[in-house]
């Protein structure tokens, strides 16, 4: 069954990926049709996240969620029932990496001040001669999945020194000058202490919930910027707010928040030297097509009993939200 609303050539490609199996298209708002489809479906391609209906489906074996973060689907019951759950992570990696660079440049150039000066027809801003660009600075990337790898290449192209932190002890990807791995016993401390820009592009799980808190913010340079393109709960937002107000760090670029939409009375809107975007990144060309490439590859692997792309693992479980 499929709740994704693909049309035309995209729908044809979805049907071809699962042929000769029958694909039941269901409007996700139609609960009765969903219940009927789940009586017979062994695969579900969802526009959103899974819920109890999918956990209780008698024949379901594989669920694909057509978006990146699986934290809302990363429930212990998934593994108790032996379900395979995958995502479309990576389809937007290039533009998510661009989003980090957008924040990094805007913060380094103190662009909001220049924009205010432009609106006032005022030439320059105080302290501009002391500013430094990104060239020669250090970026610490926490999370070296699809977006982290894309980001490392771009930061390196800007002439930045790139530090990376990942869970697994595997070779450093292109663009990473020094790699830290949880499996080797490395901590975040050295990366935080050395980085001028700290970029969070890590999945949200029980192990990354409030990964950045008061202690970690205290390790960062007072001149450093924190950028979050992960999930809001990766940061302790109260600790971040205190760090921004006290000058413990110089600023932040935030695209995700613990509560979304960010409430109108949230103090993060007005935090010092903080840029906010509404969990929105411009799309890559043919984003659906890129999703379909992942789905089609996983359909082949599912039939062959091979390890699937973007497969949820027990280490990804999230119960703290």
From TrEMBL:
Gene3D superfamilies in the record: NAD(P)-binding Rossmann-like Domain
Keywords for the protein's UniProt record, in alphabetical order: NAD, Oxidoreductase
Annotated signal sequence range: none
Pfam family, one: 2-Hacid_dh_C
GO MF, any single term: oxidoreductase activity
This protein's record includes keyword Oxidoreductase: yes
Cross-referenced InterPro entries: D-isomer_DH_NAD-bd (IPR006140), NAD(P)-bd_dom_sf (IPR036291)
Keyword S-adenosyl-L-methionine part of the UniProt annotation: no
Residue span(s) of domain D-isomer specific 2-hydroxyacid dehydrogenase NAD-binding: 103-280
Designated name of the protein: D-2-hydroxyacid dehydrogenase
